[in-house]
């Protein structure tokens, strides 16, 4: 299963930037585990998005854990909207990544 996570900042950008290095390190761990496919901020920088790959067996628990372990959430500077995504077109390409 794939998912899209939309992250919206809830604090001024100077507070976000104090947590950004920890957030990016966390994303690096997700990438190493094969969970994170792509990530990046929106322009203008009001938040960002993640493209995730999670096991079909426990989608909701896995997505909740991904959200809850993010430093942005732990420091209460952002919020997540997570949308499980049943990719139809282009799934073969995503599966190769």
Quick recap of the structure?
This protein is of the alpha+beta class and 97 residues long. It has helices at residues 13-32, 59-69, 71-74, 91-96; strands at residues 2-9, 36-41, 47-53, 78-85.
H/E order of the elements?
EHEEHHEH
CATH architecture: 2-Layer Sandwich
How many DSSP H or I helices? 4
Oligomer: single chain
CATH fold type? Alpha-Beta Plaits
The radius of gyration over CA amounts to 13 Å
| Major sheet strand order | 2-3-1-4
Mean pLDDT: 96
**N-to-C terminal Cα separation, in Å?**
14 Å
**Which CATH class?**
Alpha Beta
Largest sheet descriptor = 4 strands, antiparallel
C-alpha geometry = globular
CATH superfamily: Dimeric alpha+beta barrel
| Helix content percent band | 40-55%
What portion of the residues fall into strands of 2 or more residues? Answer: 25-35%
Number of strands: 4
Count of discrete structural domains: 1
Assign the structural class, choosing from mainly alpha, mainly beta, alpha/beta, alpha+beta, or little secondary structure: alpha+beta
Q: Give the low-pLDDT segments.
A: none
């Amino acid at each position: 299963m794939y998912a899209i996570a939309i992250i919206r900042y809830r604090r001024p950008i100077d507070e976000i930037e104090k947590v950004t290095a920890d957030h990016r390190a966390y994303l690096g761990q997700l990438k190493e585990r094969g969970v994170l496919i792509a990530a990046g901020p929106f322009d203008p920088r009001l938040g960002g998005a993640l493209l995730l790959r999670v096991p079909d067996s426990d989608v909701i628990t896995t997505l909740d854990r991904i959200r809850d372990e993010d430093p942005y959430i732990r420091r209460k500077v952002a919020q997540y909207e997570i949308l499980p995504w049943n990719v139809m077109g282009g799934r073969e390409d995503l599966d190769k990544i």
